[in-house]
Amino acid sequence: MQPTAKPQFSVVVPMKNEADNVAPLVAEIAAACAGHRFEVIFVDDGSTDQTLARLEDASKAYPWVRVLQHATSGGQSAAIHSGVLAAHASVICTMDGDGQNPPAEIPRLTAPLLGNPASTSLGLVAGQRTKRQDTVSKRIASTLANAIRRSFLRDGTRDTGCGLKAFRRDAFLALPFFNHMHRYLPALFSAHGWAVAHVEVAHRQRHAGTSNYNNLQRGLVGMHDLIGVAWLIRRRKRVAPEEIGTSP
Predict the structure, then answer these.
(1) How do the domains of the chain map onto residue ranges?
(2) Nearest to 201 by CA among 150, 144, 149, 133
(3) In 30-147, which ranges are E strands?
(4) Hey, what's the torsion of the CAs at 143, 160, 33, 119, to 10 degrees?
(5) Kind and range of the H or E element at 232?
(6) Which of 33, 79, 103, 185 could crosslink 14 through cysteines, CB 3.0-4.6 Å?
(7) Spatial separation of the C-alpha atoms in residues 93 and 66, rounded to whole Å
């Protein structure tokens, strides 16, 4: 892709202390998205290792790589929000920077949003991980958290923790921003009148590095987030204005 060409979609990848995952991730994205006009926005979220330096090297080698930096860590939702704000495309695909989300899934997620421009109702395509390659404790914790969330929000989504998602940029930016919002996108999109589609995606083990989160951290903030999201949804704006004009 030429750097001046408007991309069909933008891939947003939050990164924190993932130096050894940069090169293989860039190479896989290049292969997966060949034939498309695209850009990849890596958001370094306050890394303390060589992640930023390796991202800068990638941006020099590939014109479609862009790099943003948070001087201090703001969390995954903040990184995604920064990337979406900077994106040039109207369709966004997000994925985790740890290598567990295969880049080969990107075209499958973006296709429903790109392939039917006449339909404006579809706002989000949410990946659903199959055969998760995580520890037993993480899988159990995720299953419980997803079950509680589904019963509380009734969002019809089995796996909101999957980093692979594609959505309309304008619809995302119209949502209320808050920390950890990336885990509640199906409920938020649905509440704001958008259709949500689900696509099963592959999952794999980390290429390198260690997770920046643990089960206790997720659990402590999960219930507060859930209550807050339910409050936001109940108090969302429910009417849209109609412009009234006179004939010229």
Answers:
(1) 9-234
(2) 133
(3) 38-45, 65-70, 91-94, 122-129
(4) 140
(5) helix 215-234
(6) 79
(7) 15
C-alpha closest to that of 7 among 45, 40, 51:
40
Correct CATH for 9-234 of 3.40.50.880, 3.40.440.10, 3.20.20.70, 3.90.550.10: 3.90.550.10
pLDDT averaged over 10-residue windows placed end to end, the chain, 248 residues: 75 97 97 96 97 98 97 95 97 95 96 76 93 60 61 71 94 92 91 93 75 51 66 68 68
CA 145 and chain centroid, separation = 19
Q: Are 32 and 104 contacting, i.e. CB atoms less than 8 angstroms apart?
A: yes
Structure tokens at 127: 């990946």
Tell me the pTM.
0.82
Determine the 3-state secondary structure of 179 from DSSP.
coil
Exposed (0-12), middle (13-18) or buried (19+): which is 158, by Cβ within 10 Å? Answer: middle
Q: Which burial class, exposed, middle or buried, applies to 245 when counting CB atoms under 10 A from its CB (0-12, 13-18, 19+)?
A: exposed
DSSP letter assigned to residue 105:
G
**Would you give the end-to-end CA distance of the chain in angstroms?**
45
